[in-house]
Amino acid sequence: MQMVDSHSMLEKSQMLKDEGNRLFKTQAYRLVIFRYDKCLQYLCVVVPNSDEDAKLMEELGISLNLNLAACCLKLNAYEEARNHYDLVLKLDFGNMKAQFRRAQTYLHLAMLEEAHKDLLSALEFDPDNDEVKKEQLKIERMCKSKCVNTQGYRRKLAMLVLLECLATWHEQCGLIP
Length: 177
Description:
Serine Threonine Protein Phosphatase 5, Tetratricopeptide repeat; mainly alpha; 7 helices; single chain
């Protein structure tokens, strides 16, 4: 079995990533995903020859997963995007970009509490980030609105159940032809 030179594989991976980045600008997201996946496959078979190569591999893996998640968001594949952000945060817990984007992904998945937690965590790392603060306020308003709307929703649901029961009862009694 032939040993693969980690430096040359990292160069090939970087070239594929750069190609994927160019394709991203053309909105060819499925092709981009293919390129980034190929990159990750290369990284999976490489044993780093040095600490420098190991650091490059980790940075490239983080970058690829952030980019894959961005593609998934563009394709409305929110669960997949979340999985990529989860991976990034396992490698780099303090990655504010991943926390912020995962919070946005949680919003698409209607997971307000999780989005709120990610934004609070992002604000711990960068308390002056206006974009994160803006998103945090948006979620807080949504949470308040959800609490207010929950009572109205429950009433509407109760009415629908009641109407369905009445319709079933009328049908059983022969009142509906």
